[in-house]
Structures are given as C-alpha cells and as structure tokens.
Design goal:
Pfam families: MadL (PF03817). The chain has 137 residues and is mostly helical. It folds into two domains: 82 residues, no CATH class; 55 residues. The chain is built from seven helices and no strands.
Length: 137
C-alpha cells in the first residue's frame, strides 16, 4: 500500500512537469517553470481530496507523507543547481520575483497565524513562554 503513495507522487510529478513545461512555453522560455512546485501542490490537493472522500488508506498516506518530507531536500538540491549569477545578469526580474515570493509567503503565514484558534491550554502556555505578555499582566 505504501507503493500507492509513491505512484500518486509519480503521477503528480509527471503532471507537474508537463504543466511546468507548458507554462515555460507560454512565457516564451525553453525551460520548465515551477514543475516541481506544481507537482507538490497537486500531491497535496490529491491527498486532501482522497482524505475527504475516505479513499486514502493509512499505508498509502504514509507513502505520501514520506515523499512529502523528502520534497524539501529535493528542492534545495535543485535550487543549488541554478546559476544565480546569470539570473541576476538577465535583469531585475529574478530579484523582483524573489522579493515578491518572500512577501507573499509572509502575508500567507501571517494570515494563517491570525486565523488559528488556540485552545485555553495553548493560550496559557503562550502567556508563560512570552515574557512580553507576562510583563503586561
């Protein structure tokens, strides 16, 4: 059953690479644009869909979780292969897109944190662990 998680990842990876190639062609570049990221988003969406409809056995979910954990080292390795010097020489688009990506991530993380509801135990622990809150009381 764990192999089904790997099969789901493979299907999402192939579809993500295909979409990334199409996106690259639409942008006029001869490269894959965001295929691995698209694949991970597809994997997350497929996992959530299957969980919602009770179509994801526990062992399959373990396979999906394993590959989800392996995703970050794979992306770091892929990013290490990029030639940043030529990207920066190509124009300010690389710098602007990096700044925009960081800004969007910060806004999304802030929105998630503000939307999270803490249980009474979590609030008490937050007060104990935060010296600024404890000083105000």
């Amino acid at each position: 059953m764990i192999i089904y998680g790997t099969a789901l990842l493979a299907a999402c990876h192939l579809l993500g690479i295909f979409i990334g190639d199409l996106l690259g062609q639409a942008m006029g570049v001869k490269t894959n644009v965001g295929g691995v990221g698209i694949a991970m988003l597809l994997l997350m969406l497929a996992r959530l869909y299957m969980l919602k409809h009770d179509k994801l056995p526990k062992l399959t979910e373990l396979g999906v979780e394993y590959w989800g954990a392996m995703y970050i080292p794979v992306v770091v390795a892929m990013a290490a292969q990029q030639d940043m010097v030529s990207a920066l020489r190509g124009g300010p688009v690389a710098v602007l897109s990096a700044i925009a990506a960081v800004a969007v991530c910060a806004v999304v993380i802030a929105a998630i944190n503000r939307g999270e509801k803490l249980s009474p135990d979590d609030e008490a622990e937050a007060r104990l662990n935060n010296p600024l809150v404890a000083a105000e009381e």
